[in-house]
């Protein structure tokens, strides 16, 4: 068996019926490219998964928890029942993007069964134009954003191939040790954490001193600290209901703005989220004077990391979205400056700090703490940040699954109490697909917010064409 890392375990410990920690994606596919004689879409996917299980470790692993939550859980190899994980769905034809979004929201609103490997894919037929969609979700404890795209890549081909029934790739299941053995191991592992825990305490004190001194010396503004942003409708205690929005922009337009502002693609994605939210809140007379703050996940995976490692390599930073800045290009520049400062601070903190902190807290401690925080509504009363915004690059060439061509891809990340909106984006074939997931109580009309992303892109490209705006250089610290 393979033990979960602290961050992997954290996603499980903090999960509740309203705070679900799975990630997801909508893949829109054209089955007209499938070779003659291809099976129906759901059967084609089943054949692909069955034949590639040996290359899909997250699809083969199920949880083994230590009694009483005395230690982090383990992954055990399991042979999944694909009929339980690959499901057939349909929309009333011709299904629109709005109906696909509603279907996706229902899928993402329900928890995964912890007695099975933590994933499922719904093959949805009936889309307009004869298209189909794959609506997938997999627990965040099994993948991060980057490894989630690697799972998708393993299901894809570079050319439309016939999905032949090649049987199942061999899976070696594991014998699960008894509860007494798991408790014994938990006691041993707890003892091993004493010395690293003491060292981590000293490191935190030293790092805090270094950051304090550094922030006093730098000429620019330091990145925003958690819990210092404005309270908006996004600072909501979550219900069980979800809504989904889908959006897409041209990568070429993003590059125009990126070059005009001397920023990065990630800065422009943050600016699109900021501009859309600014318009959305202005229309409702809810735009705060203070800028919204976004938590931006940061991948710290090593170059040689693979799916077989089975661990999240994540950290994160808080960035100002400059929603108090009127001019759109000046807003990009302000976001780029805040993002640069946050990256500098992240380097001081170290890539492994969050992981080491998470390792110290076992489920027996984190689970009740999370429950207490939710019951008291602390994160909704004192939100750590306004929302989560994440983006990552995808392939620039066409992909195929079971012979069907992948036309568009929209990823999704989880929402939490106090940050009821998640905006995730990935590039594919000259487009950037956005997936917006929100709590229905906080953003019931999230599709309106999604439509404002292309509108914001148009505003930015128009401003860039009108004269451009060079990014302000931050003095080095």
Explain this structure to me?
The chain has 477 residues and is of the alpha+beta class. It folds into two domains: 2-163 and 177-183, 2-Layer Sandwich (Chloramphenicol Acetyltransferase), CATH 3.30.559; 221-394 and 412-465, Nonribosomal peptide synthetase, condensation domain (Chloramphenicol Acetyltransferase). The chain is 39% helix and 22% strand. It is built from 15 helices and 15 strands.
Short description:
The protein has helices at 6-13, 41-51, 57-60, 82-85, 97-108, 145-154, 179-192, 194-217, 251-261, 265-283, 328-349, 353-360, 363-376, 378-381, 446-465, and strands at residues 2-3, 22-30, 61-64, 74-77, 86-95, 119-127, 132-139, 242-250, 293-299, 314-320, 387-392, 400-401, 404-412, 421-428, 431-439. It is built from 15 helices and 15 strands.
Features:
six-stranded mixed β-sheet; globular; single chain; 15 helices; alpha+beta; Chloramphenicol Acetyltransferase; 2 domains; disordered C terminus; 477 residues
């Amino acid at each position: 068996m393979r033990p979960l890392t602290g961050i992997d375990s954290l996603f499980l410990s903090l999960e509740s019926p309203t705070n679900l920690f799975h990630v997801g994606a909508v893949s829109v596919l054209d089955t007209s490219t499938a070779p003659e004689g291809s099976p129906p879409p759901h059967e084609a996917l089943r054949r692909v998964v069955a034949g590639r299980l040996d290359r899909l470790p997250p699809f083969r692993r199920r949880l083994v928890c230590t009694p009483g939550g005395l230690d982090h859980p383990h992954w055990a190899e399991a042979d999944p029942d694909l009929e339980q994980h690959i499901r057939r769905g349909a929309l009333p034809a011709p299904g629109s993007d709005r109906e696909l979004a509603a279907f996706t929201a229902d899928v993402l609103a329900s928890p995964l069964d912890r007695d099975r490997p933590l994933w499922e894919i719904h093959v949805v037929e009936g889309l307009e134009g004869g298209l189909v969609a794959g609506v997938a979700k997999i627990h965040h404890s099994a993948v991060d954003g980057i490894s989630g795209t690697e799972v998708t890549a393993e299901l894809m081909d570079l050319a439309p191939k016939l999905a032949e029934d090649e049987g199942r790739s061999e899976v070696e299941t594991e014998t699960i040790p008894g509860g007494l053995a798991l408790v014994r191991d938990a006691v041993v592992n707890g003892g091993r954490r004493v010395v690293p825990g003491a060292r981590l305490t000293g490191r935190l004190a030293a790092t805090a001193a270094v950051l304090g001194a550094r922030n006093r010396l730098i000429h620019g503004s330091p990145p925003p600290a958690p819990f210092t942003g404005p309270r908006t409708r996004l600072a909501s205690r979550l219900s069980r209901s979800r809504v989904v929005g889908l959006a897409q922009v041209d990568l070429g337009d993003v590059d125009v703005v990126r070059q005009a502002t001397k920023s990065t693609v990630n800065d422009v994605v943050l600016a699109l989220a900021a501009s859309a939210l600014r318009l959305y809140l202005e229309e409702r007379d809810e735009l705060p004077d203070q800028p919204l703050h976004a938590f931006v996940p940061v991948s710290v995976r090593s170059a040689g990391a693979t799916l077989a490692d089975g661990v999240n390599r994540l950290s994160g930073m808080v960035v100002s979205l400059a929603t108090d800045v009127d001019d759109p290009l000046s807003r990009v520049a302000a976001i780029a400056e805040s993002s640069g400062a946050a990256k500098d601070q992240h380097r001081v903190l170290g890539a492994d700090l969050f992981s080491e902190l998470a390792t110290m807290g076992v489920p027996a401690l984190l689970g009740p703490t999370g429950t207490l925080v939710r019951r008291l509504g602390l994160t909704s009363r004192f939100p750590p940040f306004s929302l989560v915004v994440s983006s990552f690059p995808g392939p620039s060439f066409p992909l195929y699954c079971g012979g069907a061509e992948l036309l568009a891809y929209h990823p999704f990340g989880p929402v939490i109490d106090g940050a009821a909106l998640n905006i995730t984006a990935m590039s594919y074939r000259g487009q950037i697909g956005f997936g917006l997931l929100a709590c229905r109580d906080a953003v019931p009309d999230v599709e309106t917010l999604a439509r404002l992303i292309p509108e914001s892109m148009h505003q930015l490209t128009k401003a860039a064409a009108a004269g451009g705006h060079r990014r302000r250089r931050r003095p080095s610290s």
